Each structure stands twice: as C-alpha cells, then as structure tokens.
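Standup notes
- DV: blocked on the single-chain target, sequence here:
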Amino acid sequence: MPKVSVIMAEYDTPIEHFNLAVESILNQTFSDFEFVIVDDSKNQHLEEYIKNYPDERIRIVKNGGNFGLVYSLNRAIDAATTEYLVRMDTDDISLPQRISVLYEEITKNPEYSVIGTSIIEFDDEGKYNEFIYDMDYDFNTIMSRKVPIHATTIMKKQDIISAGKYKNYNRAEDLVLWCELLLKEYKLKTIPMPLYKYRVSELDLDKRKLKYRGDEIKARIKYYRLMGGSPLQMLSIFKSVIAGTLPNKVMYLYHQHRK
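- DV (later): unblocked, structure below
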C-alpha cells in the first residue's frame, strides 16, 4: 500500500495547465503515492488526457457528470486508501520535493492534522511572487483571514472525516473545513518553505465576484459566531462584500503587489 494519496478534481482545465500539474506530481522525489483524480467534467474526457501518462499510480474516479468540487473531493477522500491526503489543483505546479517535505513534517509532528506550505504565485505573463507563511492557526488567525492555502496541504484522512469532510459551501469549502477542525481542537500549520506554484489569472477573479461569495459570507457569519468572534471580527466579514464588487483589474493588481 502506498504511503500517501494525492487527490485532485478535474473539470475542463486547459490541457496545457493540466499536463503541467500532473507532471509535477509524477516527477516528485517522493514516489510512494497513489494519484486519485476525479473526473467531474460533463464530457468525461479525463481518460483521454491520461493516456499520455501510463503510470500505475494514477487512479481515475468518474462522476458521470458535473457535480462540483465538494462532491468530487469527497469522492476522492472515499477512494483514497492511505492515511495521508495531499491536495493538488489542476492548474498549479508542485515543486519536486513538495510531497517528501510534507510527509516528513506530518510524520515527525503527529499532533498536526493539516500542514500546508508557502507558495510562489505566478501568472500567464511569467510574473512571480513568493509568499512565506510560518504559523500555527487558531480562531483569531482564521478570523484575520490567515488560513492554510488549501491546495498546498497534506491532511490526515481520518481527521478530515471526523470533521465531516467537505461541506457544501461554494468556494468556501476549505474555510469551513479549517473552522470545523479547529472547533474539534485539531491542529493546523503552514511551513515557511515555498513548495507550491499557485497560478493566478485575471479570469480567475471572475469567480470571486460578489455573486459567487454568498456561501463564503454565510460561512464566515456562522463560524465566526461559533468561534466567539468579537464585534470587530464580525464586521470584518464585509471585506468579502467589498472585494466582490471591485473590478477584476483592481483585484488582479492587488494580488500582484500585495507582498
């Protein structure tokens, strides 16, 4: 049995981005893993994509249609056969030592349920920005919008199941998972090594417009209350409303220069 399950959900990713993501996993220095990819596309075209990669570590799970990210990630968790889950998005890139470092970190620090890495943001124009995070998380850090970057993480499967897996909050499923874990007194942290290249594009910002932020706002209201948020912390929820109304160009420039 492998030591780690890499889990990914595919929905109509541009093929050149998808190939880079898959190759970055298959070329890891740590090789003892299974690669569970859930096909959530209406066209169910993943098997055609994967023919270029005859690697027995790859396992494809078909949804039979488009059921969304939460459904797909939960299916990936159910299909995973190992104790540890490594998240991977279909348009990002893992540096070669990423899984090796994460596996060593979580096995040497078994008190943690989730460990993420720092990131290198990049765009289609070739611009890069490095963001270093070195912290443990608690209620206050989460309510200050400091959270593990979902796609960078390694997670203990049983703890994720204990927290209820991913809940159906569109574009806020990771935030809700972190809150549920902390409420159950599980530990989360991010290490200062940038091992994940995170793609940012102006088009992606369309998904962060106000019309897509309803579930995020609902989640923040619910969980800030459960975590004992102060009036000021509750008021900070409106940052999501403001961000959702800004033009894409403004948000794109913010992401490029926020360092």
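- Follow-up: Residues 137 and 188 are 6 Å apart (CA to CA).
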